[in-house]
Design brief:
Elements: E1 3-6, E2 11-14, E3 22-27, H1 38-56, E4 60-65, H2 72-81, H3 85-102, H4 118-131, E5 134-137, E6 140-143, E7 167-168, E8 180-186, E9 194-196, E10 199-203, H5 205-217, E11 221-227, H6 231-246, E12 251-257, E13 260-262, H7 277-282, H8 287-296, E14 303-305, H9 307-329, H10 338-355, H11 361-380, H12 386-403, H13 416-430, H14 434-446, E15 449-454, E16 457-462
Parallel strand pairs: 3-4, 3-11, 7-8, 11-12, 13-14
Antiparallel strand pairs: 1-2, 5-6, 6-8, 8-10, 9-10, 15-16
Amino acid sequence: MIRFYNTLSGRLEEFIPLEPGQVKLYTCGPTVYDYAHIGNYRAYVFEDLLKRFLLAKGYRVTHVMNITDVDDKTIRGAREKNLSLAEYTQMYIEAFFEDIDTLKILRADYYPRATEHIPDMVKMIKGLLVKGFAYEKDGSIYFDVSKFPKYGQLSKIKVSELKSGVRIDADEYTKENVHDFALWKKQKEGEPFWETELGRGRPGWHIECSVMSSKYLGETFDIHCGGVDNIFPHHENEIAQSEAYTGKKFVNYWLHCHHLIVDGEKMSKSKGNFYTLRDLISQEIDPLDLRYLLLTTHYRKMLNFTFNGLRQAQATRRRIYDFLYELHHRTFPPGETKEVSQLCQEAKDNFLINLGDDLNISQALTALFELIKKANVLLSQGVIKLQDKQTLHQALLDLDQVLAILPSLEEEPLPVEIIKKIEERQKARAAKNYALADKIRDELLNQGILLEDTKEGVRWKRLKPSI
């Protein structure tokens, strides 16, 4: 059984998709006014874990992630850079795709852009006007919250807080007060606009997601994800306008990821604790160490990002690498051991069972590291055979189809001068000049090359820079 915590009901629920074997998933994508920061990627990595888990359970997943390329922020950014909206947003769209590939985030099936779906938005807004859920004021069109009795069902905001006639034009607002919100914004001087049956203007942010999700997934679909900061007003408004328009339930399961903070504080450029993926890569941080760190805290708990935590993530992934390295560089006798196949099957079963409990990542990772721990004991005892090696490797690959954190065993060729140093050390050892041999080993270690003397000869590992 799979259970998820549904924000809508406020409890754990068994997951039952609308269509057997098929999951329709919508995840809130980037607003492309700047490079995405690590808080954004905390949510995207959580959503990737969810998707990979569902795939591992045998579901077909249709995944839609929107790209918000017209809103207050993108318009402001384009104006400041003296670029067209399309030119400005395209830079950050390309950067977003580079980043998600770097973090091994599976690409969605569809990435609809808001600017490509204006006619669909106009159609929904006209329908809301006809049904009496929307009204026009000074050339803009607003959703009348008082006409939707279930408003507040997701966020638990009380509609009684509504002040009659209060409207808000901003795409985002933080006060937990109920307002009528803009569906369509009248053209303002200097802003991009579309010539439509509603007049010249542009859509509000909230209508974009309602239209793009329903276009690709249907009027009712299985799972909608995002950060907790999206619950109100964005997701609450999505539900209101979608259900008012269709008369049907919008989404069955709402999954929300908690905030990422940095060193115990909210991330802010003014505090100097604001990081993009590119910032961290420029400091020679392995992006998969970041991915691992973002994965390890349960999605409904706040994640405190620290460089010490990143160092711990690096060390943990190093343990996996060391195990794989031993597995691939030892010589094993032919045959197989029943104990190994049982260990692998238990690990895979426990891994998926725990993820099925609202993505219990800590227990799922325990299954992974218990497998490595027990296999290391068998390695030291000389129990493992050639077929066992392949079984263990495949088990780790199966788990990594969900985690996507395994390090590569493909080493870059060593520079000629390093190879000469290793040969020089071998000659020193043969001549019993151990002082010189140790000196060369330490020099190479300082350059990030670890040498290991084994019965099969000298082996080397390339160490990652310390964080």
